[in-house]
Amino acid sequence: MARITPESLATIYFTFTWESSHAVHMEHYLAEDVSFTRDMLPLGVKSHMRGLGVGDSVRLRMDPSEVPAFKPGKVLDMPIARFQPPLLDGRIIKPRLGRFYPKNFIERVPGTRPDSATPFRVTGLSQGTFKADLNHPMAGREVAILAEVMGVRPGQGSGKLKRWPEIILQGPGMQARLPETPTDFLGGEPFKRKDESCDARFYAKPRPVQHLDRRARENVQHLHAELLSDDMRILDLMAGHESHLPEGFRPASMAGLGMNRQELEANPALTEHMVRDLNESPRLPFDDESFDAVICTVGVEYLIRPGEVFDQVARVLKPGGLALITFSNRWFEPKAVRIWTELHEFERLGLVSQYLLRTERFEGIVTRSERGWPRPEDPEDRYSGQLPESDPIYAVWGRKKQG
To answer: In what ranges is there compositional bias, type Basic and acidic residues (predicted)?
Structure first.
């Protein structure tokens, strides 16, 4: 079996775990062609992984010197007149508490290029002023690392240096809200859509298409295998022709609510189904504490009454029951809610977390990202051969409080 040497190229599956005031966060990243001669890796990873083979792993804490330090001097009080974003679909964007924006939305940021898209966070608002936190979103976090060897081969050529900690931590941190302060996701008509026509008519024609590439679908299946079990009664919200269950999985029952009867009838996982427009009627047609788990896959971005829907999810779950929401960075543009399209991908994890938190009936909130996987060749995938990476998968889950 090949083992890692200084000349090796390795495929490493990284898991970075950290915590915020409201959740545990896990960032998974498949790093391919990692050079043990050329690339920059978290401190200790190279020395601990030399001599390891496929299936081996190491755990360590990320050295504080590699996590950007939080610097109070990077939190600046600014007049609101310096917040100068471009118009978005003809609308004026206002700063909102807890939200992230590109630094180029601020005029004359000290030490920053005027075209910088690096994010800053609004951490305070008052009459005529706002606080701009220019620190990295992961500043000051304690991060645990799990590095698993997925493949090893001899090195070939010098290649281009990759700074893997920077690559993996580009985005994470933006899903955490300010301590004890919910993020303002609800200002500015967040649930407006480009197409406000009747959803029942829009979805009347079946669309049995895949919303994710094959690798991304497998990643959703793996997550379902990790968190669901055969003895569960499960509800699939906003279901379609596939529920993304692992092969051989047999729940006690599987109910599906969706918008198109033909798609639901084609879904082999469902033991019962019902056409239901949650935007028209968010009440779920089930008794209290009917389910062990509620899943929603690539559908949460279309909810215009998410608060009511997740209140209902809490109602129909048994105590300790699981709510699991997964999504990616693809959607039907006309029917996605405005706030979803405005947010950074990692901020959407924060939005969905807040959907669960605001019910006050969920605990043990976890967010997860899954990135870096190669996109498989697939003639049915229009992006195959164009995009090198599989669609990212983002997930949020929590459990209904006991009692």
So the answer is: 370-383
